[in-house]
Amino acid sequence: MTYKEWFDAYARHMVDVELYAEARAVLLEGTLNRLYRELKSIIESYGVIKSKSQENECIRECNECIRKYLNRWEDSEKKERDDFAGKEADWLSGVILAALGVALVSDIARKKRAMSTPFTETDTFETFTETLKADIQKSIKVPLLSSRIFGASTKSVTESLSSSFERIERNASAEIKTSVTGLQRSVTYQLLEDRRKLKFLYVSMLDERTCTVCAGYSGNVYEDLASAPAVPVHILCRCYYMPILSSSDEIEGRPEDYEEWFKRQPDSVKYRILGPSRYSIYKSGLTSIKKFSSEGRKLTLEELFQKQKSV
After folding, report:
1. Same structural domain, 94 and 22
2. 120: domain range?
3. Coil, strand, or helix at residue 194?
4. Are 179 and 119 in contact (CB under 8 A)?
């Protein structure tokens, strides 16, 4: 297998991972939609909340409904994550041996470490559902209190709940997508740690959605994953590491990096990506997209102006 064939095969697999992440997000969105409709029915059945005891009873019913839906989803998602981690480890072991001739061992301990990968910056998978439950409960509690105090119909509560659920669903969808790609990257880390025959090429997506930080890392080669930036870099990050042989100094057929892609784009696209101020700095001499970030951080305009002066 040539390097170009290897890059193409790996890239196709990563696209499949992204599609799988989308599918997991759709299933969570469906669960939240059904949960919203049932909560709406429970709340509106009360008509007007006239007492604290009525308010508490409504909250109790809603909390039980929330628990039922999200516990069922969590059980299903745990099984999916476990299956995905195992299949991903098997795929990586097989394809890297076939393409690069490097044997990997996919043991249970490594998979367990991969499964502990954070769901978001603050949540593990185990705490994600509890955080989601708390967010939904909060979105009900305050409007119900307001309804009781001011004698408003519970229909106003569900109108407020609809707005909250749009936000909750949007955030949860982004987090579940990131958690899937994060799990895939973590499986890669666990399998490939301390593999002296390998180096790792940072691959980013080549489109207008790629952030400045990921663009700055794009095309970099790292001797080992322990010293490389952790991916996903942020929520909805699509970057990944491509294993290459450590003996390969010049990689024939390597994928285009973001810098090369960016330079090929017309000025109108560069303007949309950078925005007016950064585009002006770019045209004035700071012509490498890699200079717009540093150590995993997007540089401020003031920092870029200072850098531009030194060019």
Report:
1. yes
2. 3-192
3. coil
4. yes
The predicted model scores a pTM of: 0.85
Residue 200's DSSP bridge partners are: 222, 243
Among candidate residues 177, 192, 207, the one where a domain is terminated: 192
143 shares a domain with 124: yes
Whether residues 270 and 210 share a domain: the answer is yes
Closest CA to 205 of 300, 292, 273: 273
Single-letter amino acid, residue 38: E
User: DSSP secondary structure string, 83-96?
Assistant: HHHHHHHHHHHHHH
210 and 187 together in one domain: no
Residues 34 and 91 in one domain: yes
**Is there a single domain that holds both residue 217 and residue 296?**
yes
- The Cα 185–Cα 141 span in angstroms is 38
Same domain, yes or no: 216 and 125: no
Question: 194's torsion region: left (phi>0), alpha (psi -120 to 50) or beta?
Answer: left
Instruction: Output the CA–CA distances (angstroms, integers) from residue 217 to 120, 195, 251, in the order listed.
Output: 21, 21, 17
In this predicted model, what pLDDT tens digit does every residue of 124-174 receive, in sequence order? 777 888 889 999 999 998 888 888 888 777 888 888 889 899 999 999 999
Q: How many domains does the chain have?
A: 2
Identify the DSSP state of 232: S
Among the three residues 175, 192, 209, which one is the final residue of a domain in this structure?
192
User: What are φ and ψ of residue 300, in 5° steps?
Assistant: -75, 165
Q: Report the C-alpha gap between 238 and 14 in whole angstroms.
A: 9
Alpha carbon distance 226, 230 (integer Å): 9
Q: Which of the residue ranges 31-35, 143-147, 232-236 has the most confident prediction, judged by mean pLDDT?
A: 31-35
pLDDT digits (tens, 9 = 90+) for 131-143: 899 999 999 988 8
* Nearest partner of 288 among 296, 303, 275, 278, judged by Cα: 278
Q: Which two tokens stand for residue 48?
A: 């007007």
Tokens 């560069």 correspond to what residue?
270
**241: β partners:** 202
**Residue that is written with structure tokens 């390969």 in the block:** 248
Q: Are residues 181 and 274 in the same domain?
A: no
